[in-house]
Amino acid sequence: MRFSERRARFNRVVTNPLFRPISGWVPMWSIVEHTGRRSGATYRTPVSVFHTADGVAVLLPYGTDRDWVKNLQAAGGGRVKVGGKTFAVTGPRVVPTAEVLGLLRPPWRQLLGRAGVAHTLLLDRAG
């Protein structure tokens, strides 16, 4: 098992349950709400969200093959809670992080450019 897989599993089992209650309220720690492709259950996944002009960008440090990413893609969107506000998002698409940098404000543009994360999920704010 790769290190990133072990880290993702640790975060899913240990870190996420600890931080889920404050995610969505604390800057940069947000929640993506998505519906399971098979179960139909609603899930809330803590993520790092950054505002763009049309929606949000979500870093994918564990790669593009995560269930929550697949769930958002299959459903065509979900909901995001950031800064205490929840809103619907649509049009999930995975893009190279380098393509997202121009959509972000400083200092996030510089920080994400140095983060070494290959891909980012872009979501459009619905309505």
TrEMBL record:
Organism annotation: [Mycobacterium] crassicus
Protein name per the record: Nitroreductase family deazaflavin-dependent oxidoreductase
Lineage of source species: Bacteria, Bacillati, Actinomycetota, Actinomycetes, Mycobacteriales
